[in-house]
Structure formats: C-alpha cells, structure tokens
C-alpha cells in the first residue's frame, strides 16, 4: 500500500456519516414501515409478504459479494468506491419511490409489482451501500480512526432513521388529506428520496480514499474467494451480525403492529396532566426514542470498547438486549412508562453493537491482508452488507410468517392468538436472535493486542515499499 497520513478530520468524518444518514432513511422505511405498508395499505397478505422478503432478499444478498468484487476492481480518478455514491444516488431515489407506490392492479398484479420493485430497490441499495461500507477501510488504517468513522456512520444512520420515524406518520397523514393513504406514502417517500440523493453527493465530495493497494497486491478473484473461505473471523462475524440483525428486524417490523393492535390508544397521566395518546403518536415517539437511544449507544461504543475491547463490548451488549427484550412479553398495554423506559435501555445496548461490527470487519480485512499478502476490502465489506441483508431477510420473512401463523388479519380486530403472535415477535423471538449473537461472538479471536501486531507488520511492509 501507498501510505499517507491516517488521521481523519472532523469534516470528513461528518461527510462519511451523511452517507448512512441517506441509506438509513430508506432502511428504516424498509424495516419499520414496509411490512405494515404492504399488509395494511398496499393490500397483500402477511404470508405473501414474508415469502417475498425471503425470495427477493436472498437474491439480493447474493449480489453483495459481486458488488464487492466489482468495486475492488474499479479504477477511477475518484478512487474505487466513491464513484458508486455519485452515480447510484438518483437511481436509488427513483426506485425507492416506486417501491412505495400502490398501482391500480388486481391482487396478482400487485404481488408481481411488489416483487419487481422491491428486488430493484435492494439492488440499488447494494450498488450504493456496499462501496460505501468498503470506503471506511480505505479512508484510514488506524484502528481508533476506524472506530470513530464507524461511530460517525451510525450517528448518521440513526439520525436519518430518527428523521423518518419522527416525520413519516405526520407527512403521510398530511399528504393523504383529500386523497388516499397510498398517495400520502408515495409523496412522502419522494421527499425522502430527494434528500437522500443530495446527501450521497455530499459524502462523495467530502471523503478521500487514502489506502491504495499496489498492483502486486491485486489478486485474482479465485484467490480472493479462497482467502475468504479460510478466514475464520469472517465467518464468526457473519453469524453474529446475522443474528443481531434478526433481533432488530423482528423488533422493528413489529412496532407498528404492536401499537396498533395490542397497545392501542392510551390515556397517560404525568405530573397531574392527562394525555390522550393515539397509536400513531405512541408508535412514532417509540420509534424515535429507540433510534435516539441507539445514538447514545453509538457514542458510547468507542470509550467502552477502548476499556473492555470490541469483542466483550459487542457480546455484553447483545446479552443485555436479549434479556431486556424478553421482559416485554410480560407487559400490559397500559404500562406505557415501562414500555418506553425499557425501549431506551434496549436501544442503548443495541446501539453499542453496530459500529463495533463495522470496525471489526475492517480488522478482518487487515487480518486477511496480513495472512495472505493480498487485500480484498470490497469483498470483505460486502460480506458485512450480505450479513445485514440475510439478517433482515430472515427477520423480515419470519415477521410475515409469524403474523400469518398466528392468524393475523389486516385492519381487523385481532384474536387472542394473533395478539400473542405479535407480542412474541416483539419480545421472545427477537430476544432469541440477540442471545445467539452473544454466543457466536465468544469464538471471535481478533482482540486488540493481536491487531496491534497485525497493523505493525502491515505498516512495516508499507514503509519497505
């Protein structure tokens, strides 16, 4: 590698964070609103949505390594990864609007339309987000700078999510006045799409690729895949990330159902004042608090991991998330304060996990280069995006199937059985994913002491070049 200064300024860190602000606006729409949109607005069954999520996302997850391979072999005057942000921004926004558009078709036509547009949306997301994730590893080789970049990434991610959770229901209601909810969703998503395209452009302009592999390092695809197949830490992180994302997907996907059908409208008395709270208000505030507390976790990730290590911090956070999520099963609809209080603590613990995962993937890329003499940053980071897709794939499919299995019927009064399914999905089933993630990360061996040795040897090789 050709080495330059590995320190990254605040402006560049913020610019990097804007990329995930844009991506996560749509990712939160997918994870928190799309299942509800398909069942209660678009008009297809929960079981059909679950199957569609599985089929389309498995195909999409297969595209992630291909995108990593493509970006690894891209050579432009702007670098390997940044051009995808520039040229992928507008297609990303257009397909996003189409995904939340309700066509005037029969049930079969709607299902086909949903398959096509959602598949295209996930491919557009991959084309931008895999290079964006890989960009972290070529901005700097310094482990602390990478953790800082990952933290800024997730501050951006959760801020983008908060923008959506705090405004989406309000905007949909506003744009639905005098027309339909379907039109309200379409207009709202169009507004978010414009914002996202602008932010991707700012990330392109505000970042720099500093780590440039020399020609001797650029191996064949066959060798890259062989290296990856022998990379045990990669498999461990893949499993841990998939499981923690199943946890998040089940919780995110069930929020609107949990409040609309189980909690419903509530009266809350605080400090002598009585508040009449609708399900729309409760769910919006809940989602926004969830993401706000995630940001607290992201900010705490660096100081806590500096003291405990990335592996221990990741594991303890997953375990706490699992335990607290289990408690939700025992709560009554009227226990609003407890529901929101637990939400904050789970949000903080879940927020700790995400930047650590991305920082650990950067370490895995360094470990692969140290072990093999070849660097395949895009391929390694595309696996993180693949794990994200598989986690949300399984979580999204399970959400639809669980609703169907317990007899859910959209826009109807739910039976005791269907309410039980919603509660289990929101608590026990989600907690199982976080607990398995805790178990998986116990086998991860790239601790800070070992990575210091790896980076010292890599830097020595750089100086010798």
Please, could you describe this protein's structure?
By secondary structure, this protein is mainly alpha-helical. It is built from 15 helices and 2 strands. It has helices at 10-42, 46-72, 82-99, 107-139, 143-176, 181-206, 221-229, 232-263, 279-308, 310-327, 336-372, 377-405, 416-426, 428-441, 448-464; strands spanning 266-270, 273-277. The chain is globular, with a radius of gyration of 22 Å. The chain has a two-stranded antiparallel ribbon. It starts with 9 loop residues before the first helix and ends with a helix. It has one domain: Up-down Bundle (Growth Hormone, Chain: A).
Q: Which short descriptors sum up this protein?
A:
single chain, 465 residues, mainly alpha, Growth Hormone, Chain: A, two-stranded antiparallel ribbon, 2 strands, 79% helix, 2% strand
Outline, from the CA principal axes?
A: globular
CATH class designation: Mainly Alpha
Q: Based on the structure, what is the oligomeric state of the protein chains?
A: single chain
What is the third-level CATH name, the topology? Answer: Growth Hormone, Chain: A
What is the residue-averaged pLDDT? 87
* Residue share in helix: over 70%
Rounded to an integer in angstroms, the radius of gyration calculated over CA atoms is 22 Å
Q: Quote the distance from N terminus to C terminus.
A: 8 Å
List the strand order in the largest sheet: 1-2
- The arrangement of helices and strands along the chain is HHHHHHHHEEHHHHHHH
Class derived from helix and strand content: mainly alpha
Q: Please tell me the total number of domains.
A: 1
* Helical segment count: 15
For the record, the CATH architecture stands as: Up-down Bundle
